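quick one before i forget lol
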Amino acid sequence: MMYPLQSDGPIDGGIGYIMGIDEAGRGPVLGPMVYGACFCPIADKDAIKAMGFADSKTLTEPQRERLFEKIRKPGHRVGYEVIVLSAEELSQKMLRLSKYNLNAISHDTAAQLIRNVLAKGVRLEEVYVDTVGDPGKYQAKLSGLFPTVRSITVSKKADSLYPVVSAASICAKVVRDADLKHWTFAEKDLKLANTFGSGYPSDPLTKKWLKESMDTVFGFPTVMRFSWRTCITLLNTAAVPVVWRGGDGDEDEEPEWRKGKGSSKVKPSPVKVRASPYFVKSKAAQSSTSRYRYFADN
């Protein structure tokens, strides 16, 4: 089942709300990173706690799905919003010339969630965020961006300290899991299994998928995060080496394995590549080729 990315329940603009923000899928080598927010009237914060929310990592998949259905259930004043950052989008941002690292992406996505919820007419008074990087600097950044929010708290382990952040964690995790479970490859006619496992490089199912799914010329499909060290190492050690040249014929920056950086210092084995016969003219075809008469007569 694919879930909507936001709730559509009624908003009471005359009362103050509390909101929690957390993510799922920050570390995996494949699939999306999902940021989730859950919000409710401050007067209902005890009701959120009574619903039994906990850090999504401590719950089983059926437990998370049942709790998410509680959030989505009409007739109460709990809302949610998620932003899905695809592996392709993460790769493009992190590999561009002007570096855009994962912490900055995370901070900007959390800020966008706050903007989205404020735009619904929600009067946010308290926001709680699970930290990425230094919590003090992150909190100061968000407080500067949203001066109308009375209190913004960024802390470590916020998903286990604040039930509203636990609820946000569940929203993010359930949406990410559903996305991978029902994954459809964008690449046409690609016949690969979507048994990715968790996406973490240490997961045996993920390791098996990575080993069986890499093409030595084309690499991986766009479900892969190409900016991750695991992906770079696999391509540098097992794929056909590629030398990129600029428009003036000069080589671009040296590949990572030539620089001896990190786990990419292993030089890939040379692979002989031959042109397909389709692109090579036969001798008969070459001998039968003649100039067009107009050019021969002038």
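fyi The CA atoms of residues 275 and 281 lie 11 Å apart.
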